[in-house]
Specification:
mainly alpha
Length: 133
């Protein structure tokens, strides 16, 4: 896994962390989804996802007043940063967070472990049909 994909996975895990009763985004499932997006998703989705990750990483100064990359923040400040982006007055930051939540939610919702914890059956194998050759 390349360095940028590791950053993408860490951001997705920060966007949807584990709760008291539900698991968070599994890094392995998220890594697989990021690879699939890289291979199969339309260019606009890929560009928007990467721009959103970059904004998330560089904006802690705006949301929590810390002049460092988001992935250097403590768990508490990282959570405050994610919440701050989701409710920030700037439409651009809110939209970036919505994009991150959407992609992280795709990974979270298809994770068999998450589905079992919610009392649901895992999804059947995906036909891998985003883009046909």
């Amino acid at each position: 896994m390349g360095w940028w994909r590791r950053i993408c996975v860490r951001v997705m895990c920060a966007v949807l962390p584990a709760g008291k009763e539900t698991p968070g985004v599994d890094p392995q499932c998220c890594d697989e989804l990021c690879e699939r997006i890289r291979r199969e998703a339309p260019l606009l989705l890929r560009m928007t996802m990467h721009a959103s990750v970059a904004l998330f990483v560089v904006c802690p100064l705006v949301t929590v007043g810390r002049p460092c990359p988001a992935l250097w923040l403590s768990a508490e400040n990282l959570d405050r940063h994610a919440a701050g982006m989701a409710r920030h007055p700037s439409y651009l930051l809110r939209q970036a967070m919505m994009m991150l939540k959407t992609v992280a939610g795709m990974s979270w919702g298809t994770d068999p472990g998450v589905r079992r914890s919610l009392g649901m059956e895992p999804y059947a194998a995906d036909p891998r049909g985003w883009r046909r050759s």
